[in-house]
Design goal:
- This protein is α/β, with parallel strands linked by helices.
- It has one domain (about 15-20, about 50-330).
- The chain has 11 helices and 9 strands.
- Strands 1-9-8-2-5-3-4 form a 7-stranded mixed beta sheet, with helices on both faces.
- It is globular.
Length: about 325
């Protein structure tokens, strides 16, 4: 394992310069309500106060806020503890509660880090990472000239992982879903663009992704939440059928581009490890089967990372909510 490499000369410009690639605007037929405006005002007020703190102190506040979601507020606490217990049957009750509490702290840190990271600038983003594993895998993929698909999950700080790639001078498009609050949505989009990422709304991904790959860009997708209306398949995740987006696998096969799994996880030092791994792609002539095989492969890779860092996974999402009708009772949503 090596320290995070220094950026190549091509990345010498500031991160903000990468925002010249304009993100395609999402649909504009969502006016902000009074509740949206009040929520957004509270967010900006809080961020203004946190901006006066050091990075470590600000993220510590995020951990505290997240922890209050576990106790005393108990937001989805039952969901989180049941899912952790189901995924790790070897954990006793105390260990389940400890991992659950830490996952809320991680979510709080991640949320504030994503909001505050633009103030760091390009070098500050690079300095957040103590080591990178598999950067050569990404470079080899891009050397083929067809671009690269990068799949990640809601583990660690997925936003910072994309920011690091942009800070290294690698053009990257992040496929994103719209948030319920259009003002939050605009704020997060602006944050991503200031870090050098181009935002592609999921409704535009089918049209935009091939273009980006032809330009030898990285296209990053968070692919561990199966939503209704999203092309998905069921693959095992901790032994239970989990509805998982199949888009990255479809693009990889159709466009003949490499696909990688990536994760950015917090280390005891407070800095991050960023890892890249190739996702195996094999064509047998049965396209549907091949897609499912690839989806299962990157889901196994995510599971392996979650097993290493269970306290940094987004257990607040009901991962096994949607399941096939013939799922046995003992494998249904816990």
């Amino acid at each position: 394992m090596s320290p995070a490499p220094a950026p190549p000369p091509a990345a010498a410009s500031d991160v903000d310069a990468g925002a010249s690639a304009a993100s395609e605007a999402p649909p504009t037929d969502r006016p902000a309500t009074l509740a949206h405006r009040l929520e957004y005002a509270a967010l900006r007020t809080a961020l203004g106060g946190l901006g006066a703190l050091s990075w470590d102190r600000a993220t510590a506040v995020g951990a505290w806020l997240g922890r209050t979601g576990y106790a005393p507020l108990g937001i989805r606490r039952g969901v989180v503890e049941r899912q952790i217990a189901a995924a790790f049957p070897e954990f006793d009750a105390d260990r389940v509660r400890a991992v659950a509490r830490a996952s809320y702290e991680s979510l709080g840190r991640t949320t504030l880090e994503a909001a505050l990271v633009p103030r760091l600038g390009r070098q500050g983003v690079l300095d957040l990472f103590e080591r990178v594993e598999g950067w050569d895998v990404l470079e080899a993929a891009l050397a083929r000239g067809r671009g690269a698909l990068v799949v990640t999950g809601h583990l660690g700080n997925w936003e910072l992982g994309g920011s690091y790639v942009a800070a290294r001078g690698v053009p990257i498009d992040g496929v994103a879903r719209q948030m319920a609050n259009p003002l939050f949505d605009g704020f997060l989009t602006d944050t991503r663009q200031r870090l050098g990422m181009t935002v592609v709304w999921d409704g535009h991904a089918v049209r935009r992704t091939p273009r980006a790959l032809r330009e030898n860009r990285v296209v990053a997708m968070v692919s561990d939440q199966g939503a209704l209306g999203l092309a998905s398949t069921w693959v095992p995740f901790f032994g239970r059928p989990a509805k998982t987006p199949r888009g990255p696998a479809v693009f990889a096969l159709r466009l003949k581009v490499p696909i990688l799994f990536a994760a950015a996880v917090r280390q005891p030092s407070g800095r991050f490890l960023l890892g890249f791994e190739p996702v195996p792609v094999e064509e047998t002539g049965d396209r549907e089967r091949d897609v499912d095989t690839i989806v299962a492969a990157y889901t196994r890779q995510l599971e392996a990372w979650v097993r290493r860092y269970p306290e940094q996974y987004f257990w607040q999402h009901r991962r096994w909510k949607h399941q096939p009708a013939d799922t046995p009772a003992h494998l249904r949503e816990p």
